[in-house]
Amino acid sequence: MSGHGAPGDDLQRTGISGRSTPATDLTSWLERILKAAVYDVAIESPLDPARRLSRRLGREVLLKREDLQPVFSFKLRGAYNKIAHLTDAEAARGVICASAGNHAQGVALAAKRRGIRAVIVMPVTTPRIKVDAVRDLGGEVVLHGDDFDAANAHARMLERAQGLTFVHPFDDPDVIAGQGTIAMEILRQRRGETIEAIFVPIGGGGLIAGIGAYVKALFPAIRVVGVEPVDAASMQAALAAGRPVRLDRVGLFADGVAVREVGAHTFAIAQRCVDQIVTVDTDQICAAIQDIFEDTRTVVEPAGALAVAGIKRWLAEHPGGQGALVAINCGANMNFDRLRHVAERADLGAQRELLLAVEIPEQPGSFRRFCEVIGRRGVTEFNYRYADDRAARIFVGLAIEPGGSDRAQLLAAIEAAGFPCTDLSDDEMAKLHVRYMVGGRAPGLAHERLFRFEFPERPGALARFLDAIGATWNISLFHYRNHGSDVGRVLAGIQVPPGSAAEFERHLAALGYAFAEESANPAYRAFL
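and the corresponding structure tokens:
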């Protein structure tokens, strides 16, 4: 990855040879993109100013509105370009893909437009709204497997058995060229000399490869910045390793970019054309969804908000500068049941809410004194239950001004008033579980250890998880919450006598579930 220089400088800094290859010859990619066939199905999406966000950040932010495409995502561009370039014989046999989301709809629409068969293999866990959307577009839906890898393997088997053409979601030259038409539009809609950077969500890399190749061929001074979730940063890992690497697991909140390994084509282009990778967490993504809503009154999906989240993160580390910052709003296929989670986490991601564990004396007037310390600021949450006659422990959410100064002043004021406090705003267990469970300690409870578990969310998954834990050890605390993700999350307290600790450790290792011990977590010690 590079600094501000031209693509040749990028190659020197990364130690890659400067010879042109089919993967990195920008002139060839420019020609491919200019000849791409996308407008039989796609619109030229607008490049809209984000006026409220621009005022707040002090920089001009422009939104490339791919969420306005007929399938509410950019994916139809690459899918249609691939299908449009099939020979008549290939088209007659039909196409196939594996997808649980936007690529599936793009392939179905593109195939319908050409009048050919499209088989879409989707995991059995795919939300019905997405299955119905593909069927409405004429796709033949095959439900198979619990996850994408199983669906993809089945699609490859059907490809061979039925002579179908596989439409890859990202690692295909025609798909990459189709996505690159987004950059072509941006540079028609805005003079390249006035753009400082374009922020692009990354899953498998097809979108940033197409955009990066076109932009760097014409305006190498424009920075191309990739944005990935911190728990699904497959391109960042690949660039660091000098080759595509397969992540052991990825977070699924931004499911549209939850890709464990980037493509060979996309990686080669990213090595030359991507200046920087920025990673963002779930709270920052939720805050960006709210930012986009406030400017457009559109609710984008988590992947669709990555670019705006990346702009905010990048500006915090790169103050100053000039020129427009362009965010690719790549999709708006939001699952409705995720909205509650987004709303809960947006203020934390925007640093507008502070979560605290506070200890106050268990005596009349203490709560009033605490309220005097925090002043007239909003209280977003307050949880308390009597524990003993000495101290009361409260879990409180407070509205704050974005930035660090208000937070620091408030924490100092609370401590100065004699109320010990712990900032839990970045404590994932506190935000996911403890805020809903505050109720004091259980008296006389011995040998309790606390764990967070994650397992694939599917019918019967919770019962299978409990069966796997077994009955050898007593479960003393249990909290399960499904907020519309593909992952179920459990907080469990388990009594493990010292004599059985080694056996318990072996059992945990054999479970096959991702887990983390939280026995030393300050939120647990304060409230549970």
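(Above: one complete record from the training split.) The longest strand covers residues 353-361.
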